[in-house]
Amino acid sequence: MGLDLDRCIELLLTRKLLAEPLLREVCAKTKEVLMRESNVVHIKAPVTVVGDIHGQFHDLLEIFRIGGYCPNTNYLFLGDYVDRGYFSVETISLLTCLKLRYPERVQLVRGNHETRAVTQTYGFYTECMRKYNGSADVWKYFTDMFDFLILSVVIDDSIFCVHGGLSPSIHTIDQIKVIDRFREVPHEGPMADLVWSDPDADKEDFVMSPRGAGYYFGSSVVQKFLDINGMSHILRAHQLCMEGYTELFDKRLSTVWSAPNYCYRCGNKASILEIGPSLERYFNVFEAAPNEDRELVREANRRKAEYFL
């Protein structure tokens, strides 16, 4: 019997975990799809852009309620799907199935948390072990798949989209296209910079980041990159925004953050960025999902895997 993605999506939307053999097949087929994609995927507007989710599955469902369900809405997800939140397995399972079901309408960019090293520290590994009876196989399927995620997206040859930011080693889009991305994110170098770097309103050039990877970069760096590549805007995620988003450098750069009440305690708002056919940008700000309450968090801590299909 073939893989029934519609049934998988239906089950995941009701917070049911897929069986380990099924996830093995889903990840293997998703790698085949991602392998055919460039490091830089060019897409057309309209598209709705989503920032960090971090395992807050009920807020992901809220995003679909607000922004529309696939395939009626085109989505670009900017990374950091797992860790921190209690529902990383459900989150990445659903997004992977949606990518496999609608490969032209769903784009998945790699974030700094889509790595083996980070997920072993910040929750995804432990969650997989807990929900799949002490086995790390599901974690391995997903982290192997992460090595195939794309690095960036360009919308209508005008908006450059990436998880983190810019790199002193990268001046043109073509330089991103030749990076060997099919591996664990290294500790340094252009690939690391793309997923780790942050803008800083008080900087002009590149400065080493206190995160321990990537750089802070300022207004002159942004303007030079846009000028060289003939673009108008940089769009990224990676940084908590208390109001759900920020705009810097005369609105030449935006950060979109999509995990409300981050870690179930920060009290922040979140947003999705809706980009219209003429590249008009609208930040749709929202609060934490009404059903993302303490009881659900307690349930996540005590629940074992419910196997389906």
From TrEMBL:
SMART domains per record: PP2Ac (SM00156)
InterPro entries: Calcineurin-like_PHP, Metallo-depent_PP-like, PPA2-like, Ser/Thr-sp_prot-phosphatase
Pfam families reported in the protein's UniProt record: Metallophos
Keyword Endoplasmic reticulum applies: no
Primary enzyme class: hydrolase
Signal peptide positions on this chain: none
Catalysed reactions, as listed in the record: O-phospho-L-threonyl-[protein] + H2O = L-threonyl-[protein] + phosphate
CDD domains xref list: MPP_PP2A_PP4_PP6 (cd07415)
Keywords associated with the record: Hydrolase, Manganese, Metal-binding
Serine/threonine specific protein phosphatases domain ranges (all copies): 109-114
GO molecular function list: metal ion binding; protein serine/threonine phosphatase activity
Sequence similarity: Belongs to the PPP phosphatase family.
Protein name from the UniProt record: Serine/threonine-protein phosphatase
Entry EC number(s): 3.1.3.16
